[in-house]
Structure formats: structure tokens, C-alpha cells
Amino acid sequence: MPVARPETSDSRVIAHVDMDCFYVQVEQRKQPDLRGLPTAVVQYNAWKGGALIAVSYEARKYGVKRSMRGAESKEVCPQIQLVQVPVARGKADLSTYRNAGSEVVSILSRKGRCERASIDEVYLDLTDAAETMLAEAPPEILEVIDEEVLKSHVLGLNSEDGNDAKESVRKWLCRNDADRRDKLLACGAFIIAELRLQVLKETEFTCSAGIAHNKILAKLASGMNKPAQQTVVPFSSVKGLLDSLPIKKMKQLGGKLGDSLQSDLGVNTVGDLLQFSEEKLQERYGINTGTWLWNIARGISGDEVEGRLLPKSHGSGKTFPGPQALKTFASVQHWLHELCQELSERLQLDLDQNKRIAHTLVLHATAYKVSDSDSHKKFPSKSCPLRYGTAKIQEDALSLFQAALREYLGSYTAKIQGSQNNHWGITSLSVSASKIVPIPSGTASITKYFHGHLSCSSTKQSQNNLVEEGNESYSEVNVTKPQIEFPGEETMIKYAETSSDQLEDKIDLLNDQNPCCSSKNQARDEFTQETVPVSTSGSEHCSGMNQSQLMKNYSGEEPCVKLSMPSLNRQEQKRKAVKDKGTCSILRFFKNQDPSCAPQKLELVENIEDVKAPPLSPGIQSRSNNCLDHNRSELSKERPEDAGDSNACGSFQMNKEGEEHGVTILMKLTPQSLTSYHQKFNKKCVPGSGLKSGITR
DNA sequence: ACGGATATGACT
DNA sequence: TAGTCATAT
Fold it and tell me: Which residue windows does the record flag with biased composition (Basic and acidic residues) (predicted)?
């Protein structure tokens, strides 16, 4: 829940950084010839040329859109370059993009608390850094100002022609009598410009950013001027911005809630929301959402930047549309094996690189069923404790699938056998691992953290370890955990917690086959028999572990979850802010590709060999809950009208883009009438609210 | 026959 | 807790 910051609401400096058509950039870095050409990344291509999942800005000019088919894109842009997403184990493999995202995070996390929001987006809390800069090297004393900073877009700033633009931005940035909040944002703009340049130098990727007093505004701003630009939202421009902003452009309001607002309350812009009292909104949408909406209408949000550089879960899935639906148990088993293999590999990598362990395995699937009264019932999700080791994961996932299938089919017992079956089909499958926590530091039994087995792992190299921030303490995470050793298997882990480096981390676990404790359900599959007790065994699972090695490569990260821990990146770095690179700008970077800036490429792709489907073995159990569905959604209205791309925002969007190697030449900002904005900072937030409520005293 | 593969967070 | 939904890209 949002923690109230004392004092003056939002004088925080928050930034949202968004990579520009990221997958395309990753492919263009790999194949420089593609730079500057209309390009798109497609996954699979057998059917209509594949689906586009990223489109370069050059291609967008031709009307190419995400979610077009490759063939379609060729129609509007015949020269478009289509690059396929790597495929491994018969499915799309996004690891190269994940790794590239990590490279970026490791750079962006240098100046303040950083939250990895997705594979290509992060939020930064630059408050401390901005304050330090303001105190030690405020903009007004700088003589040289980075080009990139001058190219910032400042909402509400009146600047007519292009020449004038930079000059007025410069004035705004360096104004001596500015509101303190504006000065902080100005510092944020400097810091972000520098970070973006750093990202460019080290990774060759461009990104766009928004700098504002809270996350939601920063996010909104980052999408306003793309690619390769940054936008600042001064406090005084907030009202002007929101008043005319289409409600659905606001994060979280792009779906059903936004539809409901429009159709049920006639709210079309965020400004329209102002007419409703908090009570009114709460009565219709619930306490938390109501308060959240009331705050959002005023540009208020107390949502904090989390301080998390790593993902909270890992998943691997695939869809099997229509004709490809899986209709035999064997095919399901085959795909589950592939998916689990990928998942296991990623988990092992996470363990090796970040010293984290996932505790829960979840299986999701979607299925259809013909002629059955409740043929609309959804295929239930199932989960169980996660045991490390590819084979174990495969086995457990299969068991979960069986349990779910039985439940899905209900009394409808089919005793079909081998091949086909006319009753059901699986149209998507996915396995994921969640509840990932850092391994305890110290020698205490780590064993316990492995619910079982560590497979022998071929610890892959680790190249990019983000989070190198050398923070050494994992500590607090489990101070509370009592340790209980598993009799019989002593595992010693030497792995110093403090001397953060040379640990030979190595977990020597006993080898073993040791069957685990999970009670097994004997049911093989619904083809061969129908009753299967799904026992819910207690939970501890035994273990036996094969051996595994933990690599060095530290990664530090705050313990996830909310163990209030002082943010790590927080230390002050005396902002030498701008200085050194006086005039380096992103534009220039591309103009004169300075070879010296070339980053070291990392080897990111790897192939995996196939695996033969091992004999299946039932294992796990799951708490089979009988899920009754009583889905009541307060917002039932459905209004599938899609707002294509995400760029653009109401009256504030105003730039033209002219490309040149992925860089845009910006245009002017349109003047915006800004009325002073009086807000009432006296609404409290409801802790734990669904949509995090705003706070600010 | 779909936008696919992921991911996060809230609610019950 | 587990499982479902909503949202986003």
C-alpha cells in the first residue's frame, strides 16, 4: 500500500522510461542493415506471414500497425522488413529481448530507485538525485547544457517556432524564480537526458521518457513524444493536460473500467471526472477504485516506485488456435514438456544469476468442449509447490493438467483412449513460476528453500547480470525463517553473504532421486481411468537434490515483496550531472557513429536441444478446489472499441516526427492554456486499494 | 482461426 | 491459498 509521504504532496520527481519499438531495435542492433528501414518483428509466419508484435516508426508512417499480419503489412508497405522472433522448442523465444531489457535496466537503475515495469519499461524515482542536483549544481549555474535536455518537451510551455523552442526550454530549465517543484523536474530532465544518452551509448537503443511528479503522469508523458524524446509535465500543466485527455488514454482505464466510465457516467475525458464526488465514484466502483478515480482526475497518485529490477514471475506458454487445438493427451504432454523445459531453464538461470528461488508452479490452459451443458466453463488453473529440476517440473505440470482436465470435464467421464477425442481441445497452455524470493544468505539451510530438488544445472554463463549494484545483503529476507534441516540431507552451502564476491557459491546438494513427498495421485490420465484422488498433501516436500552450482555473478536486488527495506540504489551520488558531455545528443550519436561508444555485444541467443518426452509420471497433487464461478463484475458493459496505437494524448500531442536513423526531429509544442490548478490535497488514500490510491496528504 | 507471450495486481 | 479477472504491451 502506498505510503504517505509527509509534507507537500508531490514534489517527488518520477520518470517513466519506455524503449521505442523495442523488439525492432533489438533486431536492428543485431542486423544494422535494417536500421532506418521500415521494419517489424513478427512471430511465426506460416499463417498470413505471422503476427506483428513490434513496428518501427518508419513502418508506422505507412500505416503498419501492431497486430497486423505480416501479409497485411506488406500490402501497405511492400518494402517492410519482417524479422522473425527466434523460435526454440517449437515456440517463440523472447529471451533475447528479455536480456536486452536487462541491459537497459542495469543502466537506468544507476541514478535512483528503479522499478522494472515490463520487459521494456521502467519507472524511476529521481527525487533524491534531483534534490541533490538542485542543491549542488542547479540548472541556472550551468553554462553548457546538453542538447538532449534542450530537446525536452515541456507541457504548457509556450514556444512557437522551432528555433525558439530550445531557447524557451532553456529558459524554463534555468529560471531562477521558478517554483521549487519545477526546478526539481528540471533537474529530473537533466538526469533523464543523461541516462538516455548512457543507454544509447552502451546499448545502441533509444528510448523515450516522461518526467513528472508521479508515476501515472510520467507514464502518460513518456508516450507523448516518441521516439527518442522526453516530456516534462510541470505541476501547473497537469490540469490543462487532463481536462481534455480522453479517459481511455489513462493507464488502467483502457479497458472495461474506462468503457463503463464512458457509457455509464458519460465521462469522455479525465476532466469530465471532476464533476463526480468521491462518494459517487465509490458507490459505483467501490471504495478503492472510487477514490483512485477521484484522485486520478486531479492528477494525484501516491503510487510508489518499487525498487525491483527483476521480474516477479516467469512463464512460458503457447496458443494452439482453432485447427491446431490439442486433442490428444500425448500432444498435451509433449507441449508441456517443451514449455516446462524452457521454464526450468529460466528458473535455473535466475537461481544462478540472482540467487532466487521460485516456490509455486502454476498451470493455465484454455480449452473448449463440445456439446455439454456447461461447455462454457473455463478450464481451471492449478498450482502446486515448485520443485526444481526439469523432469520434476514436467511431471508436476502434467499432474496439474490432469487434475484440471478432470475438473473441467466434470462428471463427463470420457474413457477415450489414445488418439483423438471429440469432446475437447486445448487451445492454449502455459506454465509459470511465481513466489520468487531471494535465497537466504548465510549458511543456514538453504535446503529448505528448495522444496525438493535442484537439478543438475548447467549453469549457463551469465553475461548480463543486471543488478550489479553490489548490494550485498540479502539478509533481511529471511531473518524470520526458522531453519529446520532435513534429516539426512545436509547441504552445505557456503556462500558468504557479506563478502559479496568471491563466493564460490556452490550448493552441494546431495544427489538423489529421492522421491518426493508429494502424495501422488495415481490417476494416469483420464483416458485410462477416471477417479483420481487429489490429495492435498501438506506441503513440505522433501528433497533430494542433485547438484547445482551457483555462479558468482552477484545480483543484488532488494528483496522483493514488501519487506520494507531501505531502497538500495538510494545512495547519493554527487551529481556531477551534466558536465562532461556537454553537447552530446542522441541525434549526434547517430550522426557520427562514434565507434568508441560501441557497446560490447553480448551473446544472448542460445539454442536448446530437444528433448524426448520422458515417460510421464504422476506426482503432485493439487488442492483441487471446486471452483464455483460466480463472477460478478461490476462493470459488465463491454465496449470493444479499440483505440489503436497508444501514442497521442489529447490536446497535448503535437509533434511530427521526421526520422533519421531512428531519431526524430521534434517540432514545436503547441501552446496550451494553463489555468492554475488548485487541487485539494486532502484526500486520503485507502490502503491496499485496488488501483493504488493517491495520497498526499 | 485468435494478437501472442508475458507479466502484474486486485478481488474473492 | 488458490484461482479468477482485468489490464497492458
Answer: 629-642
Q: How far is the CA of A504 from the C1' of C7 (A)?
A: 43
Look up A526 and say whether it is catalytic. no
Å: A44 CA to B3 C1': 12
Whether A53 has a pLDDT exceeding 50, the answer reads yes
Q: What residues contact residue A669 under an 8 Å CB cut-off, 6+ apart?
A: A153, A154, A155, A157, A158, A159, A165, A654, A655
Contact A225, A153 (CB under 8 A): yes
A553 is written with which cell numbers? 555473478
Strand order in the sheet with A492-494: A492-494, A506-508, A548-549
**Strands A314-319 and A382-385, bridge-based pairing:** unpaired
Coil, helix or strand at residue A380: coil
Q: Give the residue ranges with Cβ < 7 A from strand C.
A: A 118, 120-121, 219, 223, 251-258, 360, 362, 378, 380-385, 622-625, 627, 629, 631, 633, 635, 646
Fold entry, domain A97-238+642-664: Alpha-Beta Plaits (3.30.70)
In chain A, DSSP finds a helix count (H) and a strand count (E) of 16, 20
Cell of A323: 485447427
Render pLDDT for A497-537 as a digit per residue (tens, 0 to 9): 222 222 222 232 222 323 233 333 333 333 333 323 233 33
Nucleotides of B under 7 A from a protein CB: 1-12
Q: What is the mean pLDDT of chain A?
A: 71
Instruction: List the grid coordinates of A567.
Output: 531502497
Q: Count CA atoms within 13 Å of residue A117 on its CB side.
A: 20
User: Which nucleotide, over all strands, has the C1' atom closest to the CA of A68?
Assistant: B3
- Predicted confidence at residue A443, as pLDDT, reads 40
C-beta of residue A194 within 8 angstroms of C-beta of residue A208? no
Burial class (CB in 10 A: 0-12, 13-18, 19+), A688: exposed
Nearest to A53 by CA among A30, A33, A36, A73: A73
Could you give the residue ranges of the DSSP H alpha helices within A586-680? 586-591
Buried b (16+ CB within 10 A) or exposed e, A309-336: bbbeebbbbbebeeeebbbbbebbbbbb
Who's near A379: CB < 8 A, 6+ residues apart?
A364, A365, A366, A367, A404, A405, A408, A426
In a 3-state reduction of DSSP, which class is residue A85? coil
Tell me the HSE value of A6 on the side-chain side, using a 13 A CA sphere: 0
- How many angstroms separate the CA of A550 from the C1' of C7? 36
> Half-sphere exposure (CA, 13 Å, Cβ side) for A285?
24
- Domain boundaries defined on chain A: 97-238+642-664, 314-549
User: Which residues does nucleic strand B approach, with CB less than 7 A?
Assistant: A 43, 47, 51-53, 66-67, 91-94, 98, 118-119, 286, 288-289, 306, 311-319, 321-324, 342, 427-428, 430, 432, 434, 630, 688-692
Angle at A308 between CA A302 and CA A311, to 5 degrees: 120
Q: How many CB atoms sit inside 10 A of residue A523's CB?
A: 18
Cell 508512417 belongs to A61
- Fold of the A314-549 domain: Dna Ligase; domain 1 (3.30.1490)
| Distance from C-alpha of A113 to C-alpha of A191, rounded to nearest angstrom | 13
Tell me the C-alpha distance between A41 and A73, whole Å. 11
The SS3 assignment for A192 reads helix
Strand C nucleotides within 7 Å of a protein CB: 1-9
**Strand segments (E) across A417-490:** 424-438
State the catalytic residue, choosing from A27, A58, A121, A557: A121
Cell numbers found for residue A91: 515456440
